[in-house]
């Protein structure tokens, strides 16, 4: 039995996409498949699944398209970009009635490849693959993945690397940049069609103003989620912003280790435009670029109001997540301050973001063993202890709840690097093991304790190449 395809995007005006053919990678090897395989109803052998994802086998009802979008990159209008190496193989309606699109990244040249080669390398595919699943387990909205293939083509980056394809899955690939493409090329009918389609297919038929409010809300909440987990995306261009408020396009992202508002994970981001602490502001700016595309739909002041709701959506959510991280369930005046003071202190003392919150969620012995006596931190702890006296929950129960929001494990860069090297050497073991562990990041996994500690000095500052 075949999956049930319903390729709704390709019923949109043809300006929005091109029909394309994937370029298969050489000697594809299926390195990993996720549970989405069952959910999507892909009842194929490994061989056929590999063939399908590699463009060598067609399934009845599938499609092969690359979409046209534009974007603002690092604050500047970049014009047309588009799916330069990603090909949509179709939208599947699952048994539960969800629409899930399968898109393969690294499938060769498309009309939007510009100067690129249409390829993806193992390094970048593994990073996208594992982080998508790690983010989902942290309850952060994200695109998901279905499978990872490696190949034997030589791909030229800073060095010669090997080819790979990552199959990712989302309800839709629509980015802010799709709207920008149409608005800025004055394709009014096409823009109207895209707006109608988005509204009806992904926003339960909400009227346009409400849909825009919802888009602002989702992106504001996504920023709060990123900030509360120390996640830095690294390339928040408008073409990398999902209309559904999903984390999308994992490039030089990083989970912050030493707490630092100015943490930059993208080494070509010299000005720090996309530094960790800049992200909520950048999201709002990106939303302003999106809302501009609705100028023919709504009066400017309405759009302005919608945009200005961003802080009202972001702040309470961030405050709430901060309270949960501290295990505060009652509401009291200085709660948010207590949280931001801790962040400031963690920054000043360069404390590991994840390890510090996890230590607060259990006993602080390990923290003290690692960092020694930190007087300023002790002063903050006295305030925290005072505040905790206002809670009614039992301490043990509070800490248990805290351990459900403060992960013990995150995808540290050096861990990703270990996995990449293993996959490049032809093994699937570390990838499977880390996917499994990071799918339950809040649990103890005592045998892996070393990886929960702050990153050892010699493994810090692994430079992530921006080329992918
Ligand atoms: P990214 O920075 O990965 O979000 O990509 C920005 C734009 O460049 C998108 O239009 C991508 O499709 C395109 N792109 C990135 N890498 C390649 C590549 N190797 N070949 C073709 N297009 C690419
Ligand atoms: Mg992109």
Care to describe what's here?
The structure is a single chain. With 468 residues, the protein is of the alpha+beta class. It folds into four domains: 9-176, no CATH class; 183-296, no CATH class; 327-403, no CATH class; 413-459, no CATH class. It is built from 16 helices and 13 strands. The strands form four sheets. Strands 1, 3, 7, 8, 9, 10 and 11 form a seven-stranded antiparallel sheet that branches. Strand 7 and strand 8 form a beta hairpin. Helix 3 crosses helix 15 (413-424) and helix 6 (208-228) packs parallel to helix 9 (310-326). The protein is globular, with a radius of gyration of 23 Å. The two termini are 36 Å apart. The structure holds adenosine monophosphate and magnesium ion (MG). Residues 81-85, 112-113, 116-119, 235, 240, 249, 251, 468 line the site of adenosine monophosphate.
Helix and strand arrangement:
Layout: E1 4-5, E2 17-19, E3 29-33, H1 36-39, H2 46-53, E4 65-67, E5 70-73, E6 76-80, E7 86-93, E8 99-105, E9 120-121, H3 122-137, E10 144-156, E11 160-170, H4 176-184, H5 188-202, H6 208-228, E12 231-232, E13 254-255, H7 279-292, H8 300-308, H9 310-326, H10 335-348, H11 353-360, H12 365-371, H13 375-388, H14 395-402, H15 413-424, H16 429-438
Antiparallel strand pairs: 1-7, 2-4, 3-10, 5-6, 7-8, 8-11, 9-11, 10-11, 12-13
Helix pairs in contact: 3-15, 3-16, 4-7, 6-7, 6-8, 6-9, 7-8, 9-10, 10-13, 15-16
This protein binds adenosine monophosphate and magnesium ion (MG).
